[in-house]
Amino acid sequence: MLGHVSPMLKLAKVLSLRGLLVTFLTTEHVHRRLSAHDGVNSCPGFFIRSIPDGLPADHPRSAGRFMEVLVSLAAQPQETYRDLLVFLRHPWPVTYAIVDVFLPFVAEVGEKLGIPVTTFGTGGPCGFWADFCIPKLIEAGEIPLPAREEHPVMESFLRRRDLPTPCRVKDFSDGLLQGIGAATQRTTHRRGLIFNTGEPLDAAVLAHIRSTCPVTYTVGPLDTILCALDCPPGSAAGPLSSSSPCWWREDRTCMTWLDAQSPKCVVYVSFGSLTVLSRPQLLEFWHGLANSGHRFLWVIRPDMLKEADGASNIPAELAEATKEKGCVVEWVNQREVLAHPAVGAFLTHSGWNSTVEAISAGVPMICWPFFFDQMVNSRFVSEMWRIGLDMKDTCDRGTVGRTVKAVMEGERADDMRRNVAGLSGMVRECVDEGGSSRIHLDQLIEDIRAVSLETSAGMLLGSHCG
To answer: Where is the signal peptide (predicted)?
Structure first.
């Protein structure tokens, strides 16, 4: 969920800093998690509201049960969302809504109230387009996937195992498969579509998307824009804070540890906020990292293991190897870690936010995607952009060790570093004044203001006529 909340919250803050009155709506569970670790702040013109998600307080809301959250939210009566949007008219009217692509039921309520709605694709364009193609794949009889390895979703670029995980189902009537395909298709009925990316990074896929969603804004990387707006050069940190929202308290000791390391000698390891590992998988990764010969900084969340006691009784040789070469923490400021000169590679779950942050920082990746669009993102990292290696669907110690060594010191390592440095420069140009992301952000804000004036006038007329 943090992968969806983070870019939405950053966009809300950016719009607020640009002078719009913004209310950020989330669930009570998410609001509690953010508030517990100072991951979200408000200021004049920026407000946060929350609603129940319909699940009991002790529900884990983890990756394995992620769909239960969406199903519960979708099951809430439309009156709940309608009454909320009406309530939010105070102290000012709701004149425009930006809604997560996977919450189409909220968008539909807004539209019934006459509120213009734009969709935010919180993942990347490549994952969105693969999801968008699902109904066509079903119609063509391609899902369940046939025996052949290649698939023409993106001009034969993607292999079967590179498609989003819902495509791996054996029954085309699977609710998750149908739901994701339908949700992305509905974006064609919205006012526009937003992505947290830079235009040149995804130009080929964006051309496909704009053939069906012509009004598509690329406004990323949002954290870079937010940082520039919230704390310009020479100023102190602004009231909204440009750092990413936190699920857990950050461990700052890792920065001191990184300061003591040589340039580009550390592998940063983080599997995001939802990925879960079994104890055997954890140990395979641990052996592989220890055997690679490289130092590593590893984020192991308190809820990352499937077994409650899975972190206990780590073999003595691994504990010793970690003491000599590694640093293990519960959570970090990822943007800050990736920017540290000691970090030479990123072992990642290939979530879109992590992928964009690594590209912005110029850090090559070792990809171990867990689910959904991460499968597509990792393929783009390895074969489209050539800024890392993909080891999806396997995590044996030999593969982990060899892949880490290949990215850190292999014959392609210099090429990957040059490629990611080039992309990093392109992305920085996007967010500079006059760059494509700034231009698209200005266009989005102009559209919001123009439509809001029309909506406000219509609401005023309605009140007088009533």
So the answer is: 1-16
Q: What is the average per-residue pLDDT within 29-55?
A: 75
Q: Which helix (H) or strand (E) holds 24?
A: strand 22-27
Span 364-420, pLDDT tens digits: 999 999 988 999 999 999 999 999 999 999 999 999 999 999 999 999 999 999 999
DSSP codes of every residue in 178-216: HHHHHHHHGGGGSS-EEESS-GGGGHHHHHHHHTT---E
The amino acid present at 224, given as its one-letter code, is T
Which residues does the annotation mark as catalytic? Answer: 4, 100
Based on its alpha-carbon atoms, the radius of gyration of the chain, rounded to whole angstroms, reads 22
Question: How open is the CA angle 258-264-270, to the nearest 5 degrees?
Answer: 65
- How far is residue 163's CA from residue 438's CA, in Å, rounded to a whole number? 31
CA dist., res. 159 & res. 196, Å (int): 25
199-238 burial: b if 16+ Cβ within 10 Å, else e: bebbeebbebbeeebeebbbbbbbbbbbbbbbeeeeeeeb
Torsion angle (degrees, nearest 10) of CA 150, 154, 157, 159:
-40
Alpha-carbon span 273 to 235, nearest angstrom? 31
Residue 367's DSSP bridge partners are: 348, 390
